[in-house]
Write a structure and sequence with these properties.
heterodimer; A: alpha+beta; 4-stranded antiparallel β-sheet; elongated; B: 311 residues; alpha+beta; 9% strand; disordered C terminus
C-alpha cells in the first residue's frame, strides 16, 4: 500500500512529471520534424569559400543570393549557404553545404563557386550585354497587376555600348527570343540524345516577322557551343572531335552514364586538359527546363513591340506564372540572377569535404551502435560499482532519456547533427552520468547515518551534490559559450549540443533522477 | 519500513562501499607532500616532452589533401606509387580496418597543392566501385582554424578559471583546480605527440571536453573536503575518491566502447585523447589536488577571500 502510494507520489512529483513531459514532447518533435544530419553524416559536400577582399554587409547578402541562384541550376535540393563573420578580423567566410550529391556534382559545385559568374544577354546569336553593362536598381521587381493578376516584371537598364548594340540589333525583331545566360558552358561540345536535340531546335519566341535562329545556332554563334547528336560515336571519337574543335569541355546529356565514364577515362589517359560533365533529366522535369538547366539559360524572353520601336535605356523583363506567389518568386529569382551577373569579388574554396550518401548512412548506423554500446558500458560499470540493477537501470535510462531530449530539442530548432554535435552529446552524457553518481553517492553515504539527523543530513547532502553539479554546469556553459560565439569554423555543433545537454541536465534530468533515486533507496 | 525489508541489502551496500574504500585506502596513507610531488614531476616531464616532441598538426589545421577510399581491395603502397606516378606529386597511403563493421579503406595523404579531382578520377578509373571521400583544406583555412582553436581553448580555460574562483573564493583550492586542468591538458597533448595523434579541430574539441570533465571531479573533491564538516578529512577524502573512481571508470568504459565501435576518424581521435586525459585527471585530481587540499586544511596559513559578508 505504502509502496503504491509512493509510486503515485513519485510520478506526480513535478520534477519527475517535467521529465516525463519533456520526454513525450521530444519524441513527438522527432516524430514530426525528424532529425536532420550534417553533411559528414548524411552525405553531401561542404565547402568553405573565402572572398578575395573584405566585404560590406550588402555585398555579403548579394553573394549569398547569387550563389544560391547559380547552385539552383544543378537541380539539387538541400542547399544551405551561410555566411560567418569572424568578429576579430572582420573576414567573412561562406559555408556552402549541399546534401546528396555525387562526387562529380560536388566538383562542379566547387568550380561554380570559384568562377566569378558571368551574365550574358544574347539576341540573334549576338551577345549584346554582359553583367557589367546591366544595372539593376534595388528591389526593382514585383507583380505587374495592370497587365494580369499573376504577371511579374523585373526592371533593369543598359548603358553605353551595350545599349547602342542592342538598339541596332533589335530592329524588326518584335517577338524574337532574348536569352539570358549565367555562366553558360562557353566553348564546349555538347553531346545530346535525339529528343534533347529536337528540343534545342526550338526556343523560337513568337516572331511577328522574320525567322529567328534556333537555339542550337544562337549558342554556337554567341558562345562557341557546339551541339552534336549522339549517333553511337565512340568515346575516343568524341574526344577527338572536341580536341579538333579546340573545346575545353565535353558535356554528355541524356545519354547512358556509361558513355560519360568512358569519355572521362579516355580523357584521363590522354591528359589533354579537357573536362567532361554529365547531365540527365530529373523526375518530372520537362524537356525545355532541362535544356535551360544544362545551358544555365534564363528565358528565353520575348522582345515586345514597344521595346523594338521605343528608344529608352530602361527595360523590363516580364512574364507570368500560375499563381501570385510563383510569379513573385520568379521575379525575385530573375532579379537576383541579373544582379549576380557581377559578383563583387572572386571566391576561393579553402576547405572541401565530401561524403558519399552510402557512407553517410553507414555512419548513421555506426553512431547508433556506438551510442548503444556506450550506454551498455555505462550500465555495466554502474552495476559493477553498486552491485544492484535498481541503481544501474535508472542511471543508464536517465542518460538515455537525456539523449532523447537533446535530440528532441535539436529537431525542434532544426539543428543539423554533424560529428562534432554527436561528440557534444557524448560529452553531455559523460558529465551527466558523473553527476548522477555524485547524487547517488551522497544519498548512499547517508544510509548508515544516525536515524535522528537523517533527514537533515539528507537535505544537506543533496544541497552539496547540487552545488557540485551547478558549479560544473556553469563552468562548462561558460567555456562552451566562447566556442559558440567566437568560432567561425566547424566546432559550433559541439558547443550547441554540449550546452543543450548541460542545461537539460540541470533543469530536467538531474532533479528528476534525484527524486527517483531517493524513492528507490527509501524502499530499502 | 524496517520490518518489511531485510536490512541485509543496506548493509551489503555499505559493505561494497567499505570494500571499495579499503581498496583505495593506500591513497590515504600517502603523505601529502609526496602526493603533490609525484604528479608535479609527471607534469614537468610532460612539459619537457611537449617541448621536444609536440603533436603534429592535422590537415585541417595545416592544409592538405586527404582522399579516403572505401570498397577498394588494393595494396596502399602500390596505389600510392601509381598515383604519385600519374599526378607527379609525392603522396602516401595508409590502410585502415575496422573489424567490428568489417569496413576497410585506404587513406591517401597529399600536400595542399595536389589536385584532389585528378586523384579521385584516377582511382575511379581503376576501381569503378570505389567510394571516394576527398577532403581538401587550403593552408589559409588551416591558419584560420588553428588560430580559432587556440583561442577557443584559451578562452574556455579562462572562463573555467573565473567560474571556479567565483564558486570557491579561495585562491589555493581554486588555483589547484585550475592547475590540475592545465596539467591534464599538457599531459594529454604530450601523449598525443608521443602516439602520433594529430592536433585537429576534433582533438581540440576533446581538449575542451577535458576541461569539463576535469572540473567535475575537482569540484567534487574540493566540495567534499572543504564543505563536509561531519567527517574527518580522511573519511571525506576516501568517500570522494570512491565516488570519483566510479565516475571515471564509468566514463572510461563508455569511451573505450565508443573507440572500439566507431570507424570515424573524428570520434576515434576524440575518444583516445579523452581516455588519456581522464587517466591524467585521475592522478591530478585524486592525488595532486587531494594532496594540496589535505596539506592546506591542516596548515596554519588558511585564508580566503570573502566576497559576501558573513559567509
Amino acid at each position: 500500500m505504502a509502496r503504491k502510494r509512493g509510486i503515485k507520489a513519485l510520478l506526480l512529483n513535478w520534477r519527475v512529471l517535467l521529465l516525463i513531459l519533456s520526454l513525450i514532447g521530444s519524441i513527438a518533435a522527432i516524430a514530426v520534424n525528424g532529425l536532420t544530419y550534417g553533411i559528414d553524416i548524411g552525405g553531401g559536400v561542404a565547402l568553405i569559400a573565402k572572398p578575395d577582399r573584405p566585404l560590406s554587409g550588402e555585398e555579403v547578402d548579394g553573394i549569398a543570393s547569387s550563389l544560391q541562384n547559380r547552385l539552383n541550376t544543378f537541380g539539387v535540393k538541400d542547399i544551405t549557404i551561410e555566411s560567418q563573420r569572424d568578429p576579430e578580423t572582420g573576414e567573412t567566410l561562406f559555408v556552402v553545404k549541399v546534401a546528396n550529391v555525387t562526387l562529380d556534382e560536388a566538383k562542379q559545385i566547387k568550380n561554380l563557386i570559384e568562377s566569378q559568374g558571368v551574365l550574358y544577354m544574347e539576341l540573334d546569336g549576338v551577345v549584346f550585354a554582359r553583367g557589367s553593362d546591366v544595372t539593376v536598381y534595388s528591389s526593382n521587381y514585383g507583380l505587374d497587376l495592370q497587365r494580369c493578376p499573376t504577371c511579374w516584371y523585373v526592371g533593369f537598364t543598359l548603358s553605353g555600348d551595350s545599349l547602342k548594340k542592342f538598339n541596332e540589333l533589335k530592329k524588326g525583331k518584335a517577338g524574337w527570343p532574348v536569352d539570358i545566360f549565367l555562366d553558360p558552358p562557353v566553348n564546349s561540345l555538347i553531346v545530346v540524345s535525339d529528343r534533347v536535340y529536337s528540343t534545342m531546335q526550338g526556343f523560337l519566341g513568337e516572331p511577328v516577322s522574320g525567322t529567328p535562329k534556333p537555339l542550337v545556332q544562337r549558342i554556337s554563334e554567341a558562345f562557341n557551343i557546339t551541339v552534336v547528336k549522339y549517333q553511337n560515336q565512340s568515346a575516343g571519337e568524341l574526344v577527338k572531335n572536341a580536341t579538333s574543335l579546340g573545346k575545353d569541355t565535353i558535356i554528355v546529356v541524356d545519354l547512358p552514364e556509361e558513355l560519360y565514364t568512358k569519355v572521362k577515362n579516355e580523357l584521363l589517359q590522354s591528359n589533354l586538359g579537357v573536362r567532361v560533365s554529365y547531365y540527365s533529366p530529373q523526375q518530372g522535369e520537362d524537356p525545355k527546363s532541362f535544356v535551360a538547366r544544362i545551358l544555365h539559360l534564363y528565358g528565353p524572353y520575348v522582345l515586345s513591340a514597344e521595346v523594338v520601336e521605343g528608344d529608352s535605356n530602361s527595360f523590363q523583363l516580364t512574364g507570368s506564372a500560375a499563381t501570385k506567389e510563383e510569379a513573385l518568386q520568379e521575379a525575385k529569382r530573375i532579379y537576383s540572377v541579373l544582379r549576380s551577373g557581377s559578383l563583387p569579388t572572386k571566391l576561393g574554396v579553402i576547405s572541401e569535404e565530401y561524403i558519399s550518401p552510402t557512407l553517410g548512412s553507414s555512419f548513421k548506423k555506426q553512431a547508433l551502435m556506438a551510442g548503444l554500446g556506450a550506454l551498455i558500458a555505462v550500465l555495466l560499470a554502474i552495476y559493477f560499482h553498486y552491485r544492484r540493477w535498481k541503481l544501474a537501470i535508472p542511471i543508464a535510462s536517465t542518460s538515455l532519456f537525456e539523449v532523447i531530449i537533446i535530440l528532441g530539442m535539436a529537431s525542434l530548432i532544426r539543428w543539423n547533427l554533424d560529428l562534432p554535435s554527436i561528440a557534444g552529446i557524448i560529452a553531455a552524457i559523460g558529465t551527466g552520468v558523473d553527476q548522477q553518481i555524485v547524487i547517488t553517492d551522497e544519498l548512499l553515504g547517508g544510509s548508515s547515518a544516525e536515524g535522528v539527523s537523517r533527514r537533515m543530513g539528507l537535505l544537506r547532502r543533496m544541497a552539496r551534490a547540487f552545488f557540485v553539479i551547478l558549479a560544473s554546469a556553469t563552468t562548462t556553459i561558460v567555456a562552451m559559450s566562447f566556442l559558440l560565439f567566437y568560432f567561425v569554423g566547424t566546432l559550433k555543433g559541439f558547443a550547441v549540443t554540449t550546452i543543450l545537454g548541460v542545461l537539460i541536465g540541470i533543469l530536467i534530468t538531474r532533479p528528476a533522477y534525484a527524486e527517483i533515486a531517493k524513492y528507490l533507496l527509501s524502499l530499502e | 519500513m524496517a520490518a518489511k525489508k531485510p536490512k541485509g541489502k543496506a548493509s551489503s551496500d555499505g559493505e561494497i562501499m567499505n570494500q571499495k574504500q579499503k581498496r583505495l585506502s593506500f591513497l590515504v596513507s600517502m603523505e601529502p607532500k609526496k602526493m603533490i610531488l609525484y604528479p608535479f614531476v609527471v607534469f614537468v616531464l610532460a612539459l619537457l616532452l611537449l617541448a621536444v616532441h609536440p603533436p603534429e598538426r592535422g590537415i585541417d589545421l595545416r592544409g592538405g589533401v586527404v582522399v579516403t577510399v572505401y570498397n577498394v581491395d588494393a595494396s596502399p603502397d602500390e596505389l600510392a606509387s601509381y598515383l604519385t606516378d600519374k599526378t607527379g606529386t609525392e603522396l602516401h597511403a595508409e590502410r585502415f580496418h575496422d573489424s567490428i563493421n568489417g569496413i576497410t579503406g585506404i587513406r591517401i595523404y597529399a600536400p595542399a597543392d595536389a589536385n584532389p579531382d585528378l586523384i579521385s578520377d584516377l582511382i575511379k578509373a581503376r576501381y569503378p566501385n570505389a567510394d571516394i571521400t576527398p577532403r581538401v583544406v587550403d593552408p589559409t583555412f588551416g591558419k584560420i582554424a588553428q588560430r580559432q582553436g587556440i583561442k577557443a581553448v584559451a578562452y574556455a580555460f579562462i572562463g573555467m578559471a573565473i567560474v571556479v574562483f567565483l564558486f570557491f573564493r579561495d585562491p589555493i583550492p581554486s588555483g589547484t583546480i585550475i592547475f590540475s586542468a592545465f596539467s591534464d591538458m599538457v599531459i594529454a597533448l604530450a601523449i598525443m605527440g608521443l602516439l602520433g595523434i594529430k592536433l585537429t579541430t576534433a582533438t581540440i574539441a576533446a581538449l575542451l571536453m577535458l576541461i569539463g570533465y576535469t572540473v567535475d571531479s575537482n569540484i567534487l573533491l574540493t566540495t567534499r573536503l572543504l564543505r563536509r564538516k561531519e567527517d574527518t578529512v580522511e573519511d571525506a577524502y576516501l568517500s570522494a575518491v570512491s565516488t570519483g573512481f566510479t565516475m571515471s571508470t564509468t566514463t572510461l568504459g563508455a569511451l573505450i566502447v565508443l573507440w572500439l565501435v566507431s570507424t570515424s576518424d573524428v570520434i576515434d581521435s576524440i575518444t583516445i585523447v579523452l581516455i588519456f586525459g581522464l587517466l591524467a585527471d585521475f592522478m591530478n585530481t585524486w592525488i595532486f589536488n587531494a594532496g594540496v587540499l589535505r596539506w592546506y586544511i591542516v596548515s596554519p596559513y588558511r585564508f580566503s577571500i570573502k566576497l559576501r559578508r558573513g559567509s
